[in-house]
Amino acid sequence: MKPSVGIVGTGIYLPKGRMSAKEIAERTNGVWTEQAIEEKLGIVEKIVPVDPVMDGSQEMGALAALDCLKNTGVDPKEIDVILCVTEEWKEYPLTTSALYVQDRIGAVNAWGIDVQNRCCTTVSALKMAKDMLIADDDVHTVMVVGGYRNLDFVDYTDKNMSMMYDLAAGGGAIILKKNYGKNELLGSHIIGDGSLSRTAGVEIGGICNPITKENVEEAKKSLRLLDPIKMKNRLNEVSMPNWYKCIEESLRKSNFSKEQFSQDGFLAILHMKRSGHVSLLQDLGLKPEQSIYLENYGHIGQIDQILSLHLALQSGQVKDGTIVCMLAAGIGYVWAANVVRWGA
Q: Where in this chain does the record put each Beta-ketoacyl-[acyl-carrier-protein] synthase III N-terminal domain (predicted)?
């Protein structure tokens, strides 16, 4: 009998800081109004870091991991592998985030590796975790965990960056087990478009454009659209079709129809502008209560899907029989979806 993989539970860490739509509007120097930030971009407020110790990217991942262990009752010594989705922007460059988590939570029997796919990393890592659990007889429990605070690089006076005004901060964790018997992770589908690989990113601070005395202040706010025209034109052409392809294929691989998903589904989706979220639900035949719009959280990168599932379990929007679809997109550019059948 083919092994299965199930989600044991989730954990979340959210900093205490908040930035309101009004504050975001003020930082744009009047280019965006508070009303437009709320209504168009869909940000009532977003979570921002305030604690210099607890709100680092690696530490937020570790705190989410500890919350996950508490919520699930899993012994950290049971964990075989840690797939860490913490962003490259972290406390100390070139340190391994997975091993920081391993030490913080006492997962002494686990090995770990950092994986990166921008805001698609969690959905991608869940597929990797499932494949490892099925393929390797020695792997029985995997934690997917990470922290995110790329908002530090946002320049709110850059008009091209409005799509990233929602960037926020937080950490999330998920534990998966082989043959868990419930909450089964089924099909996944991922699409990449390398023609967009350098259309967005931090411009100053790498090998090509290192930090100097002259550009050090600019470097701190240099997350930019490096080729905005190419990026926007290409995304307008392929983004929504690729998303729908990912949803359709992940459902097909899971032996569910779109009709079944529209009736019994929950969409755990990243934060996006309000009109895009509403349009996507309508096109999929979903009611507003079949998703959670993260207008009071912002976009915590690859943590959004974990947060959405976590909140939906608390609210009862995800229960036994719910077909959960996690949906993500990340600059680079990558689109991804998976399906989880919640319950036994």
A: 113-194
